[in-house]
Design goal:
single chain, mainly alpha, Serine Threonine Protein Phosphatase 5, Tetratricopeptide repeat, 21 helices, about 80% helix
């Protein structure tokens, strides 16, 4: 077969044709390429239509083109949190704040993401920063108050909310949080004034919850159970009411009813501290150690420094045969809370299991001393 020969003229034409083809490809590519602004708009529209996975992909595409785009990074965080990808969403919010530390909207979204993940200490930290810059923002006020309540920081709740209560005592969300904190602090006369403001709005579930809380703190558990039951009849979707109702049932020796109520509380709010604490302990005392473990793990994450949480972790370790871990935590608790009677009881038993007779006897002696001290402090009964 003969081969075609390329003349200088034909080579020149071929080269020109190749250049034209390349130029055509470049023009076509440029015409088809969207700007970061166009992709961002498309991502926002996809999110609004509920196409969250597509929105995430498009926001990521924007960030590959413009890594410093705070709106795209923040909106990517929102989309990731919407899909339950909290750690990734939080990472995006943090990067956005690194680029724009004064961005209040991003900081609020970060706090909400921490809150939804049950990381209330981290949420409170971000909200405290936000409130120093925006003290009149109501959303951050309510969210910070609830974070403090969940952390057991009741005195901080009172300090936070009392100024607002003095100005506007008719704010029911504020009244409820403040009343709850006052009751937990044992300041029942002050809490009654707050409850009165709520009662003026009618016989609500929230008012009954606060009254039931006050009755519970006064150790009138039968009345508290009835009042809390009424609160749940008015609104069965308040996890705090189910949790406190369960505790009242426990005091009334209705163990199965309490477990059912704790379960309902946790269905509504998996991060309810008291429900996790008591459910974990109930299962531990029944010998259902593996079933107790998820509740105990969550308690440890929600309030890692709380003595009752640390006690439950150590007690479950002891029950599961993890004696060295249990010993380490109980001994740390003993140093931090030397009058915690049940810690000494557990240590006496634990040391005996570990054949540490001298240490066990020492703990038994401390138990006797603490019991005697408690008897001496009991009020005398009238004859």
């Amino acid at each position: 077969m003969k081969r075609a020969l390329l003349t200088p003229r034909s080579l020149a034409l071929l080269r020109m044709g190749s250049l034209l083809a390349i130029l055509a490809l470049i023009v076509a590519s440029s015409a088809g390429q969207q700007s970061p602004e166009q992709i961002y708009k498309e991502a926002s529209e996809a999110y609004d239509r509920g196409e969250v996975a597509r929105a995430i992909s498009l926001y990521e595409q924007v960030l590959r083109l413009q890594p410093g785009s705070v709106p795209a990074r923040s909106d990517l965080g929102i989309a990731l949190v919407h899909e339950g990808r909290y750690e990734e969403g939080i990472a995006q919010y943090k990067e956005a704040l690194g680029l724009d530390p004064e961005n209040a909207a991003v900081r609020l979204n970060l706090a909400i993401a921490w809150y939804k993940q049950g990381e209330f200490a981290n949420a409170a930290g971000e909200l405290e920063i936000l409130r120093r810059k925006r003290p009149d923002d109501r959303q951050s006020l309510y969210l910070l108050a609830d974070s403090y309540l969940r952390l057991g920081k009741n005195a901080d709740v009172v300090t936070l909310l009392q100024p607002g209560y003095a100005v506007n005592p008719e704010d029911l969300a504020l009244d409820y949080a403040l009343g709850t904190a006052l009751i937990r602090l044992g300041k029942l006369p002050e809490s009654e004034k707050v409850i009165d403001h709520i009662l003026k709005k009618g016989d609500s579930a929230e008012a009954n919850l606060l009254m039931g809380s006050a009755q519970f703190e006064a150790e009138d558990y039968k009345t508290a159970a009835a009042t809390l039951h009424k609160s749940l009849e008015l609104n069965p979707n308040i996890p705090e009411a189910w949790s406190l109702y369960a505790r009242a049932l426990l005091h009334n020796e209705d163990r199965e009813g309490a477990k059912s109520a704790f379960t309902r509380a946790l269905q509504l709010d998996p991060n309810d501290y008291d429900a996790n604490l008591y459910m974990g302990n109930l299962l531990r005392t029944e010998g259902s150690y593996e079933q107790a473990l998820p509740y105990v793990d969550r308690v440890r994450r929600l309030r890692p420094s709380a003595p009752e949480a640390r006690f439950l972790v150590a007690a479950l370790d002891a029950a599961r045969g993890k004696l060295d871990d249990a010993r380490k935590e109980f001994e740390a608790l003993e140093r931090d809370w030397p009058d915690y009677l049940e810690v000494h009881v557990q240590l006496a038993s634990l040391y005996a299991r570990m054949n540490l007779k001298q240490e066990s006897e020492r703990e038994r002696g401390l138990v006797l001393k603490l019991n005697e001290k408690a008897r001496e402090q009991m009020p005398e009964r009238n004859p």
